[in-house]
Amino acid sequence: MSAVLAVALPALGGVFLVVAGRTLSVGAVWLVAMATSVATAAAALVAVVVRAEATVPWVPSLGLSLDVCVDGISGPLVALTALVGLLAVLLVRDDTPAGGSPSSFHGAIQLVVAGSLAAFVATNAIAFVVAMEVVLVPMWVLIARFGEGNSRRDRTDAAWRFLLYTVLGSMVLLVGVLSLVALAGTADLRELARVGAELPATTQILLAGVLTAGLAVKVPVVGLHTWLPAAHTTAPTAGSMLLAAVLLKLGTYGLVRLPVATLPEGFAAVAPYLAVLGSVGIVWAGLLCLVERHLKRLIAYSSVAHMGFVLLGIASGTRTGLQAALFANVAHGLISALLFVIVGALKCRWGILDLAQPHPALREVAPRLGLALMTGLAASLALPGLAGFWGEFLAVYAAWSPSADRPVGVLRVAAVLAAVGGAIAAAYALKVAGLVWSGDAPDQTADRTPDATGVETLVLASLGSLVVVLGVAPGVLLAVTGADVTSLLGGR
Amino acid sequence: MSSLLVAAGTAPLRFDALVLAPVLLPLFAAVLVLLVDAVRPDRGRAAAALVWPLAVGGLLAGTMTAGWPVVTGGVPVRTACLQGSDGCLVATTGTGGLLQVGALVTATVVVLGLWAAAGEADSDDPVVDATLVLATAAGAAAVPAAGDLGSWLVALELATLPAIALLGRRRGSAASHGAVSLLTTSVLSFSLVTLGAGLWLVGTGSAAFSVDSLPPAGAEHAVVLAMAVLVMVAGVGFKVSAVPFHAWTPAAYRGAPGPVAALLATTSKLAAVAAIVVVLAAAAPLLPQRWLVLAVTLVAAASTTLGSLAALRAPTPIALLAWSSVAQAGWVVAALVGTGAGAADLAAGYALTHVLATTVVFAVAGAVGWGDFTRYRALLRSQPVLGGMLALGLASLAGLPPGLLGLVAKIAVLGAATAAHAWVLALVLALNAVLGVAVYLRWFAELVRSGRHRPRVRLSRPGHAAVALSGTLLIVATIVPTLIFGPLDLP
């Protein structure tokens, strides 16, 4: 029940705001959005704690039913989505982005949250794909109408590229899912996990290839990632938070639920390619970040790098690797949300985010913002003691000693490349810290940079403290995911 | 409930008028309309005030009698049954009942559109227009219930020929051009269909669609029957606008005023799909599977790709809708790839969903006005209801939420393709779904743009009613797709 509520509340709230919100004042719209987000967060928390399950029949004659279930793998992601949605709404209390009515903005955010929650709690494979599609049009509206690009043409281009790339991935994924359902005879993910392993090896390999190809756009795997920088850079702050923290997780979550859980032999054949592409992505994105001047695009590229570590963990095929991937998912969600909030705050104050221009030193003029920035950057470079470390370290460790059915040599090379990429990540993170936190402009420009406002401080403090807590006590999250990972991998 | 006893040969046939009501009521309304013209031939506003409500009333009454057995679960419904075999001249299944409802509702929206456009220069004869649409509706309601070759043929032609007259009556070279292409296509289609009917008679020796009359599989007559089905479906393919039978579509839509194009896109198309469903359901056990998959793959791939690519470059909304009709016909044909009788029912289900969405789009476009896409800029802001309905209709056609109905239908067709192991078809359909998103979202993007909408929209009462009727049905079907997919006879 709580799981159904967690999906239904933002859906109804979003539809109400889009359809009828124009009659309300800006303040009333924000209150409605805030109330919906708080209620969603409460329902999500209850669902995660209670491990809720429910069944809602939808189109029985086509085999589509909305079975929902929250277990150890989807629980952390459900909590992350509800939290980031709440913080995104909280952040825009004082100024909704221009470009359209506030009710459409808030309605779109609620619909994105609703679609993502529906995807994470779905146990029917086809319903999972449908839920992934629900988030597309609201996110397109957020980027195209409320985006921050220099011209309307930039925003439209970014929005269209995001939409068409993602729909292509979804359609390929849909073909794979429908083939799997037809061959296995069931659409329930838990049943598929048992039945899928009995399919012949060549079928498994083909199906795993198609499913991975479809999800590769969403993750994104390097080569299919060109939609991401434009979309992240152009979206408004709340949109970027949701894109990075929630939508990217849909891809890797889909990888865990579909090929890894249901087609073990097939995924064993695909995994080396995934590992190599993941490592290449880490290095490639790292090198691009070293020379990138636009701060928001730099954070966007770093997302590709972090997802590379997640791919590495998934490809290793061990329990440690999968735990690392799930941990890195949550950690990256928190870290990128934190960084995008800071970048949004800086953009408000400075107008442009060009690293080549001199900036006042944040540590002197805006110490709270500076602290948050350093926390985010340190976590991004995987400093021990912060959330980013555990996911990346354990992923590399798992890739170094993969499971028995993976080619050891390939994965070890990938692990080495990933470690090199981690070093590059340290390089660009410290470069950004040097330019922005230490700064080199004279103090006369200090009044252009007021410190974090009350709302911003609240949001930054929540995200920052979670990053520190997860870094110091990773067992909290690892314990939640542990049992279900073991049962998913069948004790390998 | 009255019944008429008609002697046919030695065995009397019993007709249940209530079962035939969906066909008889529009025809009765047409007779009343002609009576009005005979009594008061002044063709002025007084005639219009009587004619249009009569037409709408007849169609709505027909819809209710068609929908009643579907809603109460009383299908299949039969009447005029022959003794000694299981053949009936009128037989409606769940799918057939749904197709009847769809045809009559879309015809109602067309009549409302014509009513709203009445008073403009080139539609100055409400009697003729109303009678032609009522005849089309009656034919379209009769096709799904056709139990024998004769009524199938007559009903199909009744459902599609009046559109030629509706188009030819309009002034202007575009309309004449469209009418001529429609006429030549109809003649070609009729000749193919009649040839198929003749082959069917040779193959089975009986004109009734009954299971007993089918020859055993592997017999020589079975090959003749398969050929008959192929030729009949090819003939009907003209009316569905599948490639390579689609050439008439852009010309006809361009020349037709909005409501007439809507008639071609909705009612005629449902009648054609119903014709295919009836034929395939009757001959299902005897069709060679491998060739069927190949033929369906070729036609569906060509239709969806060509239609989507041409629609991407369409300069005006009506051209976009014409090519979208071709692309959607490809999806309908793709649904036939499955094995067994459920395939034709799935095709009917997909046809119903996309026709419902198309009806909404036509209703709103009729109110806002044709022209080109810039006419719709920022419509969502200035006319939230109209813009919202159009947005929902376009999203349904694209198969993207909030158009959940379209997405469910596309999933069903893709599922049928994968279940039949037609991997090439499934992949082509997936790629074309992406193209489809690009096609419809182009129009959707204009709706949500910021700015001011001009010119102002003037919505008359019949126009309101058309948008309200089709829009409400689409919203309800989006939330509860079981309303469409439930009554279908899916396996």
Structural description of this entry:
The complex is a heterodimer of chains A (492) and B (491). In chain A, 76% of the residues lie in helices and 3% in strands. By secondary structure, chain A is mostly helical. Chain A has a two-stranded antiparallel sheet. In chain A, strand 1 (53-59) and strand 2 (64-69) form a beta hairpin. Chain A starts with a helix and ends with a helix. The model of chain A has no long low-confidence stretch (mean pLDDT 89). By secondary structure, chain B is mainly α. Chain B contains 20 helices and four strands. Chain B has helices spanning 17-39, 45-72, 94-117, 126-142, 149-160, 162-168, 173-204, 220-240, 248-255, 258-265, 267-283, 289-312, 317-334, 342-368, 379-382, 384-398, 404-419, 423-448, 461-479, 482-485; strands spanning 3-8, 11-16, 77-81, 88-92. Chain B has a two-stranded antiparallel ribbon. Chain B has a two-stranded antiparallel ribbon with strand order 3-4. The longest helix of chain B is centred in the middle third of the chain and has 32 residues, at 173-204. The two termini of chain B are 33 Å apart. The relative contact order of chain B is 0.10. The A-B interface holds A 19, 22, 58-62, 64, 99-101, 115, 126, 129-130, 133-134, 136-137, 140-141, 144-145, 156, 160, 163-164, 167-168, 171-172, 174-175, 178-179, 181-182 and B 381, 384, 388, 395, 400-402, 404, 407-408, 411-412, 414-415, 417-419, 423, 426-427, 430-431, 433-434, 437-438, 441, 445, 448, 450, 481-482, 485-486, 488, 490.
Features:
heterodimer, A: 492 residues, 2 strands, B: mainly alpha, two-stranded antiparallel sheet, 20 helices
Radius of gyration of chain B: 22 Å
Envelope shape of chain A: globular
The amount of helix of chain A comes to over 70%
Distance between the termini of chain A: 34 Å
State the end-to-end CA separation of chain B.
Answer: 33 Å
The total count of strands of chain A amounts to 2
Oligomer: heterodimer
Could you state the order of secondary-structure elements of chain A as H and E?
A: HHEEHHHHHHHHHHHHHHHHHH
Number of helical stretches of at least 4 residues of chain B: 20
Give helix % range of chain B.
Answer: over 70%
How are strands sequenced across the largest beta sheet of chain B? Answer: 1-2
Q: Structural class per helix/strand content of chain A?
A: mainly alpha
Q: Spell the H/E element sequence of chain B.
A: EEHHEEHHHHHHHHHHHHHHHHHH
Q: By helix and strand content of chain B, what is the structural category?
A: mainly alpha
- The share of residues in extended strands of chain A comes to under 5%
Cross-sheet strand order for the largest sheet of chain A = 1-2
Q: Total strand count of chain B, please?
A: 4
How large is the share of residues in beta strands of chain B? under 5%
Give me the Rg of chain A, rounded. Answer: 21 Å
The main pleated sheet of chain B reads as: 2 strands, antiparallel
Low-confidence stretches of chain B: 1-8
